[in-house]
Write a structure and sequence with these properties.
- By secondary structure, this protein is of the alpha+beta class.
- The chain has helices at 65-79, 97-107, and strands spanning 41-48, 54-59, 83-86, 89-93, 110-111.
- The longest helix is centred in the middle third of the chain and has 15 residues, at 65-79.
Amino acid sequence: MGLFDGTPLERPITCERCGLDLRSCRCAPPPEPEVNLSKQRLRIRVEKRKRGKTVTVISGFLGSTSQLKHSLTELKNLCGAGGTIDGQHIEIQGDHAQRLQRELPRLGYQLHS
């Protein structure tokens, strides 16, 4: 007799679309939309954080998470700094607002006035 015999935890988790066990499900996840870079109107702001740390926040990204991750990598390399994704925002360590205002249009993005 197993620990979960007779409970809902005993049953395998099934796919919502096809009803098969998740291990045997062949449903493909729906593709995330790719948004043209020129249609993304970005805003840049600099925030002061705890212990005097400065962070440059870029917001206004649209599209898939893979596209956002690719943008994060490009911007971190461009600034030579660390960074992270917070929701639909990219945070780069340090004050890089001027550099990003010059370089984002070169990468194909549009800045919000």
